[in-house]
Design a protein that fits this description.
single chain, alpha/beta, Rossmann fold, GMP Synthetase, Chain A, domain 3, 4-stranded parallel beta sheet, 17 helices, about 30% helix, about 20% strand, globular, binds adenosine monophosphate
């Protein structure tokens, strides 16, 4: 059994995530652990809050091993609740605030959470109303943890709260959600022993220690900012976490200056905006030591511009919520750090590059990356192993096209999975195409990536109209239609092209490579889409800064 091997090698240790994260709490009791706006929480307050909250969750009737879905913005409440749930043996399911019913309903059906915690109502969207609807559809959910009640639920109590449950290190600590390559997200179960090994390895290569100040600029519900190494790695190192209320570069850079931030993780689009913001409004960012950039392709020239412009180490991160995490090292030569996405952080992770038939590709050539080892899951929740995700030998098929050098440094050059990576947020094409086909004016649809100056890639829907003349589907109408189907706003098409027929390959499949070339040429020529202009925006405008967050809030 590979799990026994990982334990024997010491890669998996008998420890729990909440214990690892709070291991310095006694020694650093009066040091600040978390900052959110004007609120500051010490390590002592954090520990008491976690224990008090775990006890209150029990009073609410939640029992191990019932999961609880957390769809919360960056907040002290999110961190306290996640740690309390792990301590109570009720695995938190981390869901991005951008997800909607279309994505969440299948997750709830599979993981069967007993409670949902949702963000406050905003002008753009009413999460409470969505949660009520989901509760009506899924009888497993007994409790709505409304935002208004979370402050009291997560406050430090008076007196010592007894530890309510001590999960086993082999128990599931939490569920992350996959970005979904063929459909809605799938649950990624992470045990305490496996997740702590990832946190430890990622923290070490990021040089997180007691002097570190980590800015959570992107949503903490994404694994990159949660435990890769993110806020959990920072706390496990005895450092301080600063929670940004949004990924807006001006807000984040104000926080860097005010809190003397040393570490931050960003997607490439946001990192580029930091330079623009600093050029227009200079600030003192001399405290910055490490800027981690990942989630989407960072071009080597952009990596060099960032390192010079911010005068700090730019650490490329390539990985996935399913487990594998590669980092360039802080002492790597500049050229390697700019041109590769690094090598695995954890010992024992195997990388294999394969050709289209699943055979090992010759060294140095491009192929799909398969991985297995202590960092990576061997099945999704409910033991689901779709063949496009798991290959022979228990390898996880990343769907990414890479090249490896002799030292196992990964360079990502493309992907075989039919997914659009819009500022780090992944849009499975097939999922969107199926929804577009429900529209009465659409009789065929193909969704492809188009180049975008801010997001790297944006979503172009190429459709064949059922009718003619007035029945041609227009962008606004299709976006409204898709929104009404309950999909996440970042998946809405940015552009629609209406064609007479979709091009097909020799074997009769839609020729997406050709469509991508055609759309890229139209974008390069600056031709507006005839079906109603390129989208001005998502629920918050895509031209606005915060929408480039990939992992946008
Ligand atoms: P997620 O599970 O949401 O973190 O998405 C993982 C996927 O994001 C990977 O399989 C890649 O397709 C993509 N990805 C992550 N980091 C990078 C990177 N540094 N360069 C290119 N693609 C990346």
């Amino acid at each position: 059994m590979s799990a026994d091997r990982y334990r024997a090698a010491g890669w998996w240790r008998p420890e729990r995530v909440d214990d690892l994260v709070l291991r310095h709490a006694e020694a650093l009791a009066d040091r600040c652990a978390i900052v959110q706006e004007q609120r500051r929480m010490t390590y002592r307050q954090l520990t008491v809050a976690v224990d008090s909250t775990a006890a209150r969750l029990r009073l609410l009737g939640l029992r191990a091993p019932e999961p609880v879905l957390l769809q919360l913005p960056n907040s002290i409440e999110l961190l306290v609740l996640a740690l309390a749930l792990m301590r109570a043996g009720c695995p938190p399911v981390l869901a991005m605030p951008t997800l909607r019913g279309h994505e969440l309903s299948p997750v709830i059906a599979t993981l069967r959470p007993a409670a949902l915690a949702v963000p406050p109502r905003s002008r753009a969207f009413d999460h409470t109303e969505m949660a009520r609807r989901l509760i009506g559809e899924h009888d497993c959910v007994r409790t709505l943890l409304a935002w208004e009640d979370l402050h009291a639920l997560c406050a430090p109590g008076h007196g010592e709260a007894a530890r309510v449950h001590t999960p086993h290190p082999q128990d599931i600590a939490l569920h992350l959600l996959s970005s979904g390559t063929t459909g809605p997200p799938k649950g990624i179960p992470r045990t305490h022993e496996a997740f702590t090994s990832v946190i430890r390895a990622a923290s070490e290569v990021s040089a997180l220690d007691r002097d570190s100040v980590y800015l959570a600029a992107i949503p903490v519900t994404h694994s990159f900012a949660f435990g890769h190494p993110g806020v959990l790695g920072t706390l496990a190192g005895g450092g301080r976490v600063v929670l940004a209320r949004s990924a807006d570069p001006a807000h984040c850079l104000d926080l860097v200056e005010r809190e003397r931030v040393t570490h931050c993780a960003l997607v490439p689009g946001l990192a580029a905006q930091w330079l623009t913001e600093l050029r227009d409004h200079p600030r003192d960012v001399s405290s910055l030591r490490v800027l981690q950039v990942g989630g989407a392709q960072l071009d080597p020239a952009a990596a060099r511009r960032l390192a010079t412009g911010l005068d700090c180490a730019v650490q490329q991160v390539y990985g996935m919520s399913e487990g594998l995490l590669c980092f360039t090292r802080l002492d790597d030569p500049d050229d390697l750090a700019a041109t590769t996405q690094g090598r695995p952080a954890a010992p024992g992770d195997e990388l294999r590059v394969v050709d289209h038939a699943g055979r090992t590709a010759p060294p140095g050539t491009v192929g799909e990356l398969w991985t297995r080892g202590p960092s990576t899951i061997t099945a999704y929740a409910a033991d689901v192993r779709p063949p496009e995700a798991f290959g022979p030998g228990g390898f996880y098929r990343t769907g990414d096209l890479v090249r490896l050098d002799d030292a196992c440094n990964v360079t990502v050059v493309g992907r075989v999975k039919d997914v659009i990576n819009r500022s780090g947020e992944k849009i499975p094409a097939g999922d969107l195409e199926a929804l577009l086909l429900r529209h009465p004016a659409v009789c065929a649809a193909a969704v492809v990536a188009m180049p975008h100056p801010l997001h790297g890639e944006a979503v172009c829907a190429v459709v064949v109209a059922s009718g003619s003349g007035d029945d041609v589907p227009r962008l606004r109408e299709l976006r409204d239609f898709l929104r009404a189907q309950g999909i996440a706003p970042f998946k809405l098409p940015d552009r629609v092209e209406v064609v007479a027929a979709l091009p097909v390959t020799g074997v009769g499949k839609v020729d997406k490579a050709r469509l991508r070339r055609t759309v890229a040429a139209l974008v390069a020529a600056g031709r507006p889409d005839p079906a109603g202009q390129t989208a001005g925006g998502q629920e918050s405008p895509s031209s606005s800064r915060s929408a480039a967050a990939g992992v946008s809030s």
